[in-house]
Design a protein that fits this description.
The chain is an alpha/beta fold. Helix content is 43%, strand content 20%. It has 11 helices and 11 strands. The strands form 2 sheets. It has a 6-stranded mixed sheet with strand order 2-1-3-4-5-6, with helices on both faces. The chain has a 5-stranded mixed sheet with strand order 8-7-9-10-11, sandwiched between helices. Strand 10 and strand 11 form a beta hairpin. The longest helix is centred in the middle third of the chain and has 26 residues.
Length: 357
């Protein structure tokens, strides 16, 4: 039976088994060495601003090793670099990377479905034009803060068509490169096409972006084979049954199980409300059972002691805040809600449950 059809406790057990297996794999010597080798070959640090939609999993659609891309998630990919916490986290990340002599590529992502607008971004009410326009606003903010010459920090808008998991790279002056439309001959000249599209991007950064694009081409071929075998439908319809609030959810590689909300917006109630509404509509439409949902708050920590204790306090706050919003605005849904609070050891990606309700 597909995971979204199982009873809620079986789904929760499946989730923690997935988290445990991810931590074991991530912290293995082979995986650690592979990440170090990858970063040595591709030194550009890459961060991704993206939607909370569980289908938007850039490491998966680019066949990139887990732990290479730094994710920022929020409702619809809506961000404002004026938000105090977001600005602090991003500035700290950039400064840490630059101090080691590396550049930063900031991918600003929107997503849509070519087959059905209603499979697009619920966070923008399925309005792809509005989602794209917002990415341009973020791009401009990045240039205002870090400079428009792009010598060190480069903001790049990339679309994701979720039916085929295909990337669209946007240059300036309205030009774009749609990977799904490239022929075999055109794929062979991808590096030249990227250089023409992004002439102001440093050469090393383009070289470090290319593996993601080649990985996406391989993934597109895999998805098309799934479509040919009629195995793709579950990956393109909303079937989320859990709300993840905070950071540290890289282990959720399965599409359409979770709505992931980063702790960045000063108006955190809005994405929580929207996520709860999506899950309620999934239940009403019969896409998932109506026997329950999971609210999972997680905050990462780097060190034991004060850093871990602070992560616990923050995670408990997120749990209380989200629980209050859902109980106030979706009382019937709240009666079906299982609530878990966790912290995440960032070094091993181990999820540690510190409270359940």
């Amino acid at each position: 039976m597909a995971i979204h059809r199982r009873p809620i406790q079986e789904r929760i057990d499946w989730l923690y088994d997935l988290a445990d297996r991810h931590s074991t794999s991530f912290s293995s010597p082979e995986a650690w060495l592979a990440r170090q080798r990858y970063l040595a070959e591709h030194p550009t640090a890459i961060a991704v601003f993206k939607c909370m939609d569980g289908r938007v999993n850039i490491p998966v659609v680019t066949n990139t090793p887990v732990g290479i891309l730094m994710p920022f998630r929020n409702l619809g990919g809506r961000f404002d670099l004026g938000w105090p916490h977001l600005g602090e986290v991003l500035a700290s990340h950039v400064q840490r990377v630059v101090s080691s002599g590396r550049r930063v590529l900031l991918i600003i992502n929107y997503h849509f479905s070519q087959g059905d607008p209603r499979r697009g971004c619920a966070g923008f009410d399925y309005d792809t034009s509005a989602a794209f326009a917002h990415t341009l606003e973020i791009q401009q903010q990045v240039e205002t803060i870090f400079g428009a010459a792009h010598g060190t920090v480069y903001p790049l808008v990339i679309g994701l068509e979720t039916d085929e998991d295909a990337l669209i790279i946007h240059g300036r002056d309205g030009e774009s490169l749609e990977l799904a439309k490239l022929s075999a001959d055109e794929r062979a000249t991808l590096d030249l096409r990227l250089a023409k599209l992004l002439p102001d991007m440093p050469a090393q950064m383009r070289a470090d972006l290319l593996p993601l694009l080649h990985g996406n081409l391989e993934h597109i071929d895999e998805v098309r084979e799934q479509i040919r075998r009629n195995e793709r439908m579950l990956d393109i319809e909303h079937r989320e049954w859990m709300i993840c609030l905070g950071r540290g959810f890289d282990f959720l590689h399965t599409p359409n199980v979770a709505l992931i909300i980063g702790p960045y917006s000063p108006n955190l109630a809005e994405p929580i409300h929207r996520a709860a509404g999506i899950i309620e509509s999934n239940m009403v439409a019969g896409r998932i059972p109506d026997d329950g949902l999971l609210l999972l708050a997680s905050v990462p920590y780097d060190e034991i002691g004060v850093d871990r204790a602070r992560a616990e306090v923050k995670s408990r706050f997120l749990t209380r805040f989200a629980t209050d919003v859902i109980r106030r605005e979706f009382p019937a849904l709240a009666d079906k809600m299982t609530i878990h609070t966790a912290v995440l050891d960032w070094r091993s990606r181990r999820l540690e449950i510190i409270g359940t309700q």
